[in-house]
Design brief:
About 35% of the residues lie in helices and about 20% in strands. Helix 4 runs parallel beside helix 5 and helix 8 runs parallel beside helix 9. By secondary structure, the protein is α/β, with parallel strands linked by helices. The chain has nine helices and ten strands. The protein is globular. Bound molecules: iron/sulfur cluster. Iron/sulfur cluster binds next to helix 1.
Length: about 290
Amino acid sequence: YGCNNFCTYCIVPYVRGRERSREPQKILEEVRELALNGYKEVTLLGQNVNSYMNHPGADLEGAGEINSFAKLLDAVCKIDGIERVRFISPHPKDFTDDVIEAIANCEKVCKSIHLPLQSGSTNVLKVMNRKYTKQQYLELAYKIKEKIPNVSLTTDIIVGFPGETEEDFEDTLDVVEKLKFEQVFMFIYSRRKGTVADKMDNQIPEDVKHRRFNKLKALVENQIEDNNKKYLGTIQKVLIDGTSKNNKNTLSGRTDGNKVVVIDADKKYISKIVDVKITEECMWYLKGE
Ligand code: SF4
C-alpha cells in the first residue's frame, strides 16, 4: 500500500501515504484460501509492488525469509492449486535482477511484464521525478527480454507532460519503436490538483497534446497489428474466465502473455486452462478454437 516516489503528476503518495508491506504470511494465507476455493490465478497488486519489503519501516524481522518481492513471488508460486501468478505495477527503478530471475525460473509466473515508461525523454523523466533515464529504461527492457525468452512487455505512456518538446516526444516514439510493446496504455496528460506538475507554468496546449497522442496511437496500433500476426496458427494456453463481454454465446480468457482470446466452446471449459489454436487476430484480442 502507498507510495514513496512522488512522481510529479501523481496524487497517490498524498492520498495513500507512505509504502507499507503486508506481512508475507498473511498474503500466503490469503492465496492458499483462494486456491482452496478454486481460484487458478492471482495478481499481486501494489502501487509499487516490487519495492515490497524494501522501504523505510518494512518489518524485515517479522517477514523472516520472505524479505523481498522476488522471494514473495517464489513463495506464492509454491502454493498448490494456483497455476498463474501476475503482478502489477512494478517501478522500473526497483526492478532488481532477483525479480527477473524469479520470473524466468518459476513456470507459474506469467511471462508478461507491465513496465510503466511514462516518457521516453530523459529530460521529461527528470521533471516527472521518475528516477531513471531513457537509457536505463532501455537497458532494463533489453535485459528482461534477454533473460526471459518470449516475454511480453506492456507499458503506460503520458503524452503532453508540461514542458515536453517535439524532441522529447520523438524520444518517446523512439522507445516505442525499439521495444515493440505488446500493449501501450496511452494517456493525454491531465492536471491533478495538489500535484507539483499542476503548478508548472509550461503546460502544453490541448491541440499539441492531441496531435502527439494521435501520432503515438498510430504507431502503437501498427505495431500491435504486426505483432498479432505472430500468434496466427499457434497453440496458446488460455485460462477461460467466463463468457465474452460482447457475446454471451462465446467464451473469453487470457493467454500467459495476457492477450484476450475469444473462442466458441462449451461453458464446461470456464475456469480451466485449455489449449487454443489462434485462428484470427483483431486489434485488441485474438480469436481461436
Ligand atoms: Fe507512486 Fe506510481 Fe504515483 Fe509514481 S505514478 S507516485 S510510482 S503511484
